[in-house]
Amino acid sequence: MHTFVIAEIGINHNGDIDVAKRLIAAAKEADCDAVKFQKRTIEKVYSKEFLDSPRKSQWGNTQREQKMGLEFGLADYKEIDCFCKEKGIEWFASAWDIEAQHFLRQFDLPYNKIASAMNSNNEFLCEVADEGKYTFISTGMSSYDEIDNAVEIFRNSGCSFELMHCSSIYPMPKEQANLKMIETLRNRYNCKVGYSGHETGRVISLSATVLGATSIERHITLDRAMHGSDHAASLEISDVERLVKDIRLVETIMGDGKKSMSNEELAVRKKLKEQ
Question: What is the H or E stretch that residue 235 is in?
Fold first, then answer.
């Protein structure tokens, strides 16, 4: 068993390509399998009224300036693409609108991701499923009807996918993890199920691995105290390194579930049981 570990950079780069590169390099050093970003067409995702509303940030005094300040453009993603290839780590992104999904097609990305906020948008789901790329589908703030619908769209399109159990609270209180949903989703949909976490610490994500999560996605940051909405629900680099090491250890100790005796145990048996 290999648990696919995704380091969610998201918008924790704070609009700084150098910070993004530091996070990519750290994720590779920690032995993560991939890094993930978020892509939005700001004018499509948010209303003009919202974008014109006040919000003080390092980029200006409106929501528009703050959102635009966090958004990487084509030149940035070309640099990210080259840097990930140089480091030998895969990258992909969750698009928040169809135009952003089309933008990502400029790159030969191995995966797609459906954010929880987008998993009930049929037009968007069909657009992504039609690409035929393996897709991670988050199930936060979703009803069974919505998940049923998303699964049906992907299966009808013949597009491989896995669901991700998720609670869309930032940061998520530990008592709301409800990790038994991993098995519930696996049984209901007969598919792989991963875990996308927004909690602090490592215990819940490690427990999800024990319960058979096929992927673990966690936001990463250089410093949880940095300015931004997602940093508080993220892991700092030292914790990412510890989590991945612990996940790899769990993969080893879980075994294959088949009753057998190693040569070492056979030797003990001969000494203690067969004399």
Answer: strand 235-236
* DSSP run (H or E) holding 57: strand 54-57
Query: Who contacts 107 (Cβ-Cβ below 8 Å, separation ≥6)?
Result: 77, 81
d(CA 229, CA 9): 12
63: left (phi over 0), alpha (psi -120 to 50) or beta: alpha
Joined together, the tokens standing for residue 252 give 């080893």
Query: Rounded CA gap, 194 and 115, in Å?
Result: 13
CA distance 162 to 2: 14
Total domains in the fold of the chain: 1
Rg, C-alpha atoms of the chain: 21
What local confidence, expressed as pLDDT, does residue 13 receive?
96
Mean pLDDT of 243-267: 93
Q: pTM of this prediction?
A: 0.94
Going by pLDDT thresholds of 50, 70 and 90, the confidence category of residue 99 is: very high
| CA atoms of 110 and 136, how far apart (whole Å) | 11
Asked whether the beta carbons of 63 and 51 are under 8 A apart, the reply is yes
- Containing structural domain, residue 187: 4-272
Q: How far apart are CA 12 and CA 34, in angstroms?
A: 16
DSSP assignment, residue 273?
T
Q: Any idea what the CATH number is for the domain that residue 103 is in?
A: 3.20.20.70
Q: Which of 31, 36, 87 is nearest to 251 (CA)?
A: 31
Output the pLDDT for position 233.
87
Q: Is the pLDDT of residue 275 over 80?
A: no
